[in-house]
Amino acid sequence: MPKILSVSSFGLDISDESLKFIELIQTKNGLQVGRFGECKIPPGVIEAGKIKDTKQMEEILADLRKTDGVKSVRVSLPEEQVYLFQLRLEKAGLKNVKEGIELALEEHIPIQAEDAIFDYDLIEENAQSLEVQVAAIPKNIIENYLLIFKHANISVESFELEAQAISRAIIKYGDMETYMIVDFGKKRTGIFIVSKGIVMFTSTLDVGGEILNNMIQKSFNVSFEEAEKMKREYGLERNVVNKEIFPVLLNSVSVLRDEISKHFLYWQTHKDEEGKNNPSIKKIILCGGDSNLIGLADYISISMKTPVVMANVWTNIVNTDNYIPEMVFKQALSFSTALGLALIDWNV
């Protein structure tokens, strides 16, 4: 069936704090943004990617179907619950790849093979062996998510690693270079390394934009809303006006920088099972709702002596010279996961 005749599908990004959805529509002028939105998830409903209050989550999804017409979705998997590892399989005696991975699962993840669901990407292959990148998640996590969508009468077309969805949105289709992606959100930051179009590494930090707000709020005795405004207005610019706020923000941002640097160095110096070096990281790409903090990209770039750029979430979706989506830059950065999920339907 031609894509233009297929049922519309949404990208749905679920975190502990919020739910973001977006629809891409094929028109005679190319892809355009359809319906999109965000709703808050109350504290305690989801924790570290695990659904704790199924009834309330079902109500949130049911309301999404009722008010926004969301009937089918592609959903991001919670990074905290996903195990990611590389595996080399010898071809001798190998019946099929999935069976070979299943036999080796328990050597790499702390759950039994029958309690896991996994998928893989082929990294490279030769006459003797093949190397794959495996993503595995506890089966009960998937089952719980499927159940709440079923009760909300919403069809799930696929689940996908959040990092893979983001890379689909912000890395140019066909680009096989190696990049580090830093998804700087409200309460957490995802650090991903993508090489040859495959997510090779993920890490999640409990550091986000709200920590900066809390530091400003405590230091200057202002409201949380005023702290957010001060953060946006001044950022990490070192000047006379900003001389008091700068060191407060720097304390928290330096923690993020140190974590980025640690993972960056490990990747650059680590060798695989055959003693080969990993491909060098070409640049660091920032995305997420708090990534456009003034001076953040420059601070990380200068301190790490590495190019750092802001993500363009429209790279594989629209030509902004011809069509400007009704979404401001900051908001678009926070929708990178949902956009990457929605992009699956258009063969990118």
CATH topology group of the domain at 174-314: Nucleotidyltransferase, domain 5
| CATH class category label of the domain at 174-314 | Alpha Beta
Output the radius of gyration.
21 Å
Could you tell me the number of beta strands?
A: 15
Features:
Nucleotidyltransferase, domain 5; five-stranded mixed beta sheet; 348 residues; disordered N terminus
Give the structure's gist in a few sentences.
This protein is of the alpha/beta class and 348 residues long.
Plain-language structure description:
The protein has 348 residues and is of the alpha/beta class. The protein has a domain at 174-314: ATPase, nucleotide binding domain (Nucleotidyltransferase, domain 5). It is 33% helix and 29% strand. The strands form four sheets. Strands 3-2-1-6-10 form a five-stranded mixed beta sheet. The protein has a five-stranded mixed beta sheet with strand order 13-12-11-14-15, with helices on both faces. Strands 7-9-8 form a three-stranded antiparallel beta sheet. α5 packs antiparallel against α7 (245-269). The longest helix is centred in the last third of the chain and has 25 residues, at 245-269. It is globular, with a radius of gyration of 21 Å. The two termini are 17 Å apart. Mean pLDDT is 90; it is low at 1-7.
